[in-house]
Write a structure and sequence with these properties.
mainly beta, Porin, 159 residues
């Protein structure tokens, strides 16, 4: 038991010795994903700005392709706290707000709704090169009447 506690303590100390992401760096990315409850495919773009070495803001816009007469456009503003585990890999918890515009088309009826919601989740990223990042993100979006989980794959260009 003492061995495991020592290993855990060593891992926590080593995490804090890495410089995380660099303050002022930015990234532009394209992503594709899936919404589990509505079975919608998602396509989106995002921008990430590192406010500090560990903290970044990530605004994004996503389109949820029409499925079962339901489509959505969502604007998100998430915050990430990045833990860089090595020169090749990092992970981050995320939290943020979501503004979504839902549209449901019935035979002759069209129903629309605008909802404000919250995001919570986590992601991981592989630093493929100095300029290219590949990552995966899982988040849960809680919005009135349409809560669901999403899984997204992202490719980003860092500058």
């Amino acid at each position: 038991m003492k061995k495991w506690i020592f290993i855990l303590a060593l891992a926590i100390v080593s995490l804090s010795t890495f410089s995380q992401t660099r303050r002022g760096d930015s990234s532009f990315g394209l992503n594709v994903g899936y919404g589990f409850d509505t079975d919608n495919a998602t396509f989106g773009v995002d921008y990430r700005y590192n406010v500090t070495d560990e903290f970044r803001l990530a605004p994004s816009i996503s389109y949820y392709a029409k499925n079962n007469n339901l489509s959505t456009c969502a604007l998100d503003l998430n915050a990430h706290y990045v833990f860089k585990l090595s020169d090749m890999f990092g992970f981050y918890p995320l939290g943020g707000v979501d503004l979504s515009f839902w549209k449901r088309d019935y035979l002759l009826n069209k129903d629309t709704a605008t909802r404000l919601g919250l995001n919570i989740g986590m992601g991981g990223e592989v630093y493929a090169t100095k300029d290219i990042t590949v990552g995966m993100e899982a988040k849960y979006n809680t919005v009135e009447d349409w809560d669901q989980a999403y899984l997204t794959v992202r490719v980003g260009y860092n500058f």
